[in-house]
Write a structure and sequence with these properties.
490 residues; Urease, subunit C, domain 1; globular; binds zinc ion
């Protein structure tokens, strides 16, 4: 059975879980693959855990969870598994691994989206990306990232192959933007040509595409899918972190968006959009876009329209960057211009209002931080606690980052790189991505910011943090045993 589906990775399929040492993964050979085939599945039984399942408003107390290889085989009050390694949860809270539904891992060099023009090459971009994927995402409990502009597809490939540790990545590939739009990061005098001579380094790195007309959209969307994109991101309106586009403008023209939606649908997947106001939201709703980022200037009739569409569409809430950062001129990143900061203040004002309306009308909602570049990438989980500051309950905030996120990831259909099991939930038939916490985040959401309270991180059946179980069983590397050179995590 194919456990991983990225088209570029057929050979090592199914091998990853069984090899508990990353060193062994790196040294994998066809001979080893044969041995692995015969190996009995590894089982881990968690006992005495209180479960947040990704959806419910209360914990299920005193539960057991049986993990086999890389998936959850059983959840129940008492489970018999005589061959399993047992982890006594001692009444801790278990929840699904967190899912950041709005990341830009390739945009982490210090100068943000402009970085690649003059100061860094894409090799440095990948190094920054992997550092933050590991240290500020996976090791803080974020086991899946939806990357929604930028092209980390080969970093994702290396992670899937076990060559690098890191979270799962669902990538949109390069964002689709018009000339002068939110994805046009070239200098003012640099012609942002597509598919020809890529003078614009942002396009050369495939982090964004500057396209005009349905035919150029077609080419860019298909190039993304060719590289393994799971969905498509279009720039449907003006933005904060870009130079040429006031917030009020429309982004791609209707026929350009329609073409992106058509090709995404032909590939069985969906389109997500960057947009802020009623006019762009309604045009994009008309055209079949499904994932709506930002939206901080929308009014109640638009929110009601989205609510009536149920889980056909989703609102993706970037709380921290709007409420905490964009609300305050002086708190915005130093590399922003004055005009960018003024735009940010307008967004900040609208964000609390938008969250209040979306919550009031029960719009299907996910959370995504949009927090990249230092210092923000080091404090991503404050986007979750910010949801509570904006009026949601802790259970709702966590649902945005787990259960609801897992539903939207599956909208990628045949382009889903992890198609075998569910994500964002603790139930039979979900990937074994799970966290154990001291305390109950449904009572005190802020405890998720305390890394010492995060005692156990499992992603895809492999342990990346363990401060609970003593012992030198190889399964618990990396664990309490002192780390040595070459062991994960570094
Ligand atoms: Zn973004």
């Amino acid at each position: 059975m194919n456990k991983f589906k990225r088209g570029w990775f057929p050979v090592l399929t199914g091998l990853l879980f069984a090899v508990t040492s990353a060193i062994a993964i790196a040294a994998s050979s066809s001979e080893q693959a044969e041995q692995t085939e015969e190996k009995k599945p590894t089982q881990v039984l968690f006992t005495n855990v209180n479960i947040f399942d990704g959806f419910a408003g209360t914990l299920q107390d005193g539960m057991s969870v049986l993990v086999e290889d890389n998936f959850i085989k059983e959840v129940g009050k008492s489970i018999t598994a005589p061959d399993a390694i047992v982890v006594d949860g001692e009444g801790r809270t278990m929840m699904p691994g967190l899912i950041d539904m709005h990341q830009h891992v390739m945009l982490n060099p210090p100068e943000g989206t402009a970085s690649y023009q003059t100061r860094w090459d894409d090799a440095a971009g990948g190094a920054f990306a992997h550092h933050h994927l590991m240290n500020n995402m996976l090791l803080k409990g974020i086991t899946t990232v939806r990357d929604i502009a930028g092209d980390p597809l080969d970093v994702a490939k290396a992670i899937d192959m076990g060559q690098l540790p890191g979270p799962r990545i669902y990538s949109a590939g390069g964002a689709i933007s018009q000339t002068g739009g939110h994805g046009d990061w070239a200098g003012r005098n640099v012609p942002p040509e597509i598919l020809g001579n890529h003078i614009d380094m942002s396009q050369r790195t495939q982090n964004t595409w500057v396209v005009d007309g349905p035919d150029e959209v077609t080419k860019a969307v298909r190039l993304n899918f060719r590289r393994g994109a799971a969905f498509i991101k279009v720039m449907g309106g003006g933005g904060v972190a870009s130079e040429f586009d006031p917030l009020e403008i429309m982004g791609l023209a209707a026929d350009e968006v329609a073409r992106a939606v058509e090709i995404a649908a032909d590939n069985g997947t969906y389109v997500a959009t960057h947009a802020y106001h009623d006019k762009s939201y309604n045009r994009l709703l008309d055209l079949g876009v499904r994932s709506f980022e930002h939206g901080f200037l929308v009014t109640e009739p638009t929110v009601e329209r989205m609510a009536a569409m149920g889980q056909e569409v989703v609102w993706s809430f970037q709380c921290f960057m709007s409420v905490n950062t964009f609300g305050d001129y002086d708190a915005m990143p130093g590399f922003f211009t004055h005009e960018q900061k003024v735009k940010g203040v307008a967004v900040g004002k609208g964000a609390r209002n938008a969250a209040m309306l979306m919550n009031k009308h029960n719009v299907f909602t996910i959370g995504g931080s949009d927090m990249f570049g230092l210092p923000f990438v080091a404090q991503i989980k404050e986007d979750i606690t910010c949801n509570v500051d904006a009026g949601y309950t802790p259970a709702q905030a966590l649902k945005h980052w787990t259960g609801n996120a897992g539903i939207v990831l599956k909208w990628s259909g045949p382009k889903d790189p992890y198609p075998t099991y569910e994500l964002g939930t603790i139930k039979e038939g979900a990937y074994a991505d799970l966290l154990l916490w001291d305390g109950n985040p449904l009572e005190d959401i802020k405890l998720i910011l305390d890394e010492d309270k995060l005692r156990f991180i499992m992603k895809d059946g492999l342990v990346y943090k363990n401060t609970i179980v003593e012992g030198d069983h190889p399964y618990f590397r990396p664990a309490k045993a002192p780390l040595t050179r070459g062991q994960y995590p570094l």
